[in-house]
Each structure stands twice: as C-alpha cells, then as structure tokens.
Design brief:
This protein is about 35% helix and about 20% strand. By secondary structure, the chain is α/β, with parallel strands linked by helices. Strands 1, 2, 3, 4, 5, 6, 7, 8 and 9 form a nine-stranded mixed beta sheet that branches. The longest helix is centred in the C-terminal third of the chain and has 16 residues. The chain is globular and about 55 Å long.
C-alpha cells in the first residue's frame, strides 16, 4: 500500500531553481512546505551554486515531498527545463529562491483551474517585500488580455498552469534568458485561455543580489533576450500594432506608463518599442 501511495503522481509540481541564494532559500522552501494545499511535490534545482546551498538543502533530506537535483551552472531556463522534465504533477508552477509563496497560493490557484476547465493558466497579485521580508507595496496586476501581454509581463511570478500546456508547447527557450517566463506565457497565449485571480498570493523580494538586480538592471538598455523577444513580437505585424494601440489606451487610463505600477522595482525609462 505504501509503495502505491508513493507512486501516485501529486496534483501539483513546484520548482525552485536556485543559484547562490543560500541565505533566502530556506524561506522559499518553507513557504512551499507550509501551503494549505498539501498534495504537491517540490523539486529544487541547484544550478551550480558555489555558496553553502548544498548544506542548506541537506537539512531537508528527510522531507518526503522534496527532491533535489544538482547540476553545473546552466542558467535559469535550462535549470527550469531540468526540473520540468522530471515533474509529475497535473498542474505546474515555479518560484524563485528569494521569493515566498503566501500560504493559500496553491489552494487558491488550483481551485481556479479546477472550477474553470476552459482556462489553462491562472495568476494572482503579489506583494513587494524588502530583503528582510518587510512589506513595501501590493501590486494588483492586469486582467488577461493577450495583446497587453505583448507589451509587458504582467503575469509575473504568481501562477499555476496545466501540465497539458507543457506537453504541447515544450519547455523554456534558453535564448530568451531573463525573459524566459514572459516568452513562455506569450507562446501559451496563442493557444490557451488565461485568467487573473484578484488575490495577493505571493511575495516578491527586492534586494541587491536578486537575479533581476545582478543580470538586468546592471546592464544598459535591453538584454539580448529582451531584444530577441521584441523582434519576435514585431514579426506578428497586425497583432503587434493592436498591442501598441491597447497599450496607449492603458497608458492614458493609468495616467502614465503602466510599468511604473506593475514593475516599480525594475522599471526604468527606455525608448518606446
């Protein structure tokens, strides 16, 4: 009986890819283990960390829902692909190793997918916190619009989607480093319906050693991944121009660039695309 129970696939797979964030990693892991929804597996992909990440993960050896995968540093998209190749859940998500899920995130998003069978991805609102976990600001994101998604990643980091999407779309594309999730949502939006769940379910941490701070904000202008993504979006021609019109309408409605509201921690003035 026990072996059959072990072999039963969990409802949800959660991934935590991590690289040199041992100080925050326990907080991220505990935020998953303390979810009110209990039917999940947690895969942590140690992407070649050189700090004490291995020692941190060793402390969780006895946790039956947690599996650890160690690999050489291959960057975030490939770390995600390593994990999702081994995922067994009916629903999939991932979280950064410096962020935190709020306790009812999985329960709330699983319920939204289960009660809306025509929807393939659901996403919630989030709270910005500082390095010590203090609240900075609540972000209420946009309702789903595939054209506005072409202008900015308003889905961000609080989401859950059906495994069937991965079966059709495949995995994350490494050439879109730093915007690999946004590119994946755009691929998904061409085939599937998405839905906003207007509840704060996630905490996004702002600190100097975050991936965004180190790899994106330190670079002038757009990253290579962003340039490739914008080029791909422009190739859609009519859809790109519809997205631009809708974006201008939203800018007028919000009395300024919507990115200032959606991504105040990373937004900087750049030439309009």
């Amino acid at each position: 009986m026990d072996s059959k129970k072990e072999d039963r696939a969990p409802a949800i797979t959660v991934l935590i890819p991590t690289y040199n964030q041992a100080d925050y990693l326990p907080d991220a892991i505990e935020s998953v283990l303390q979810q009110t929804w209990r039917d999940f597996e947690l895969l942590v992909i140690n992407d070649g960390s050189t700090d004490n990440t291995r020692e941190v993960l060793e402390a969780y050896r006895s946790e039956p829902r947690l599996r650890v995968i160690h690999q050489s540093n291959q960057k975030l998209p490939r770390a995600l692909n390593t994990g999702f190749k081994q995922a067994r859940g009916k629903f999939l998500t991932w979280t950064s190793s410096d962020n935190r899920m709020l306790p009812k995130m999985l329960e709330t998003l699983e319920n939204a997918l289960r009660t809306n069978p025509d929807v393939s991805l659901v996403y919630g609102d989030w709270e910005l916190i500082d390095g010590k976990g203090n609240s900075q600001r609540v972000i209420q994101t946009l309702n789903y619009d595939p054209y506005l998604l072409m202008r900015t990643n308003y889905i961000n980091a609080c989401f859950l989607y059906r495994r069937s999407c991965q079966a059709e779309l495949g995995l994350y594309n490494p050439k879109y480093l730093h915007v690999e999730d946004w590119e994946y949502w755009l691929r998904m939006s061409e085939k599937y319906k998405m839905m906003h769940v207007p509840k704060v379910l996630y905490q996004y941490r702002i600190h100097g050693n975050s991936l965004t701070s180190r790899a994106v904000l330190s670079q002038p202008g757009l990253t290579n991944g962003q340039r490739r993504l914008i080029k791909a979006l422009k190739s859609r021609h009519i859809a790109w121009w519809i997205s631009k019109i809708k974006w201008e309408w939203l800018r007028l409605r919000m009395s300024g660039d919507p990115r200032r509201h959606l991504h105040p921690h990373v937004w900087s003035k750049k030439p309009d695309e």
